[in-house]
Design a protein that fits this description.
binds fe (iii) ion, binds zinc ion, binds adenosine monophosphate, nine-stranded mixed beta sheet, 10 helices
């Protein structure tokens, strides 16, 4: 039995619907999937229903963008209450920050004589939680860029001319928010953050786990973070970070996390969390 605990749908910057994603999960033989859209849980109810139809266990989650001493990191909240009022109002704020950032980035592109319209980006995004991949797809649509990599390299990545910094909550606040919503806080893809020195501080702030297995973690990186997880008694998680067809080949299937890690995660949940127990049930949408 194996799981993929890091997946995106079109409710953020992935391309698959929850139903399509659950279908791919079933074809790969997954026993458990978690949806980790950026700053939203809108897709969770449908994903839960689609997984149930496929006989797959489903864990709701969200991937928050946080900051620790000036470094950006992503923190996933697993098994949060998807109706938690504070979590919902905070995510609404993060979404409006994202929408304003799109506007500012398009303005920067326009000043460079790139004839991109904000409406074109928002039509591609068609969600409340737009991000740079949607701008990249819009740039491909108007034939300014050939692919996502070119769009990021020329315009969108940090330090490039259309890049706009994004407001981020502190890592401590993100962990506290996830705990307030009844979930567990896991540091996503630490191998892409390159600042292991922050890990003890995050653990002190209540971090519950670390994503050791990730598509962009080579074997040596996986082993390194498995050791860090053991040192700090952290949960071990993993996932493909699949964004659908956004990045060429769909990544789902590239990581098959042994199911024992899901069991350990569920054991660590607070006693009143409905996802605790042998096979998690999702409320009907
Ligand atoms: P944002 O949420 O707007 O900061 O955008 C972050 C998203 O952009 C994440 O899903 C990343 O995987 C994606 N991303 C970051 N760098 C690149 C890149 N060089 N090529 C393609 N996608 C990227
Ligand atoms: Zn993403
Ligand atoms: Fe991420
Ligand atoms: Fe992700």
């Amino acid at each position: 039995m194996f799981a993929d605990l890091h997946l995106h749908t079109a409710f953020s910057d992935g391309t698959y619907s929850p139903e399509e994603l659950a279908g791919h999960g079933a074809r790969h033989g997954f026993s458990c999937l978690a949806l980790t859209d950026h700053d939203t849980v809108e897709g969770c109810a449908r994903m839960g229903a689609a997984c149930r139809k496929e006989g797959i266990e489903f864990l709701p989650a969200t991937e928050l963008t946080a900051e620790f001493k000036g470094t950006e990191l992503h923190i996933i909240g697993y098994c949060i209450d998807i109706e938690h009022p504070k979590m919902l109002s905070e995510m609404e704020h993060f979404q409006s920050v994202r929408q304003n950032r799109i506007k500012e980035m398009v303005e920067r592109l326009n000043r460079m004589n790139v004839p991109l319209r904000e409406e074109a980006v928002m039509a591609i995004a068609n969600c409340r939680s737009p991000g740079r991949p949607h701008i990249a797809r819009a740039l491909i649509q108007i034939n300014v860029c050939k692919n996502l990599d070119e769009a990021f390299e020329r315009f969108l990545k940090k330090g490039r001319p259309a890049w706009v910094p994004k407001f981020k909550i502190s890592a401590n606040e993100a962990i506290a928010l996830i705990h307030a919503a009844g979930g567990l806080a896991v540091m996503a893809h630490p191998g892409l953050v390159h600042h292991d020195s922050m890990i003890p501080d995050l653990v002190a702030a209540g971090l519950d786990g670390i994503e050791c297995y990730h598509t962009r973690h080579p074997t040596t990186t996986v082993e390194h973070y498995l050791q860090i997880a053991e040192e700090h008694h952290l949960l071990v998680t993993g996932g493909s970070d699949c964004h659908g067809m956004n990045k060429g080949q769909p990544l789902i299937g590239s990581i098959k996390l042994p199911y024992q890690h899901v069991e350990q995660l569920k054991e660590r949940l607070p006693a009143n969390n409905p996802f605790k127990g042998p096979f998690a049930k999702m409320p009907q949408p």
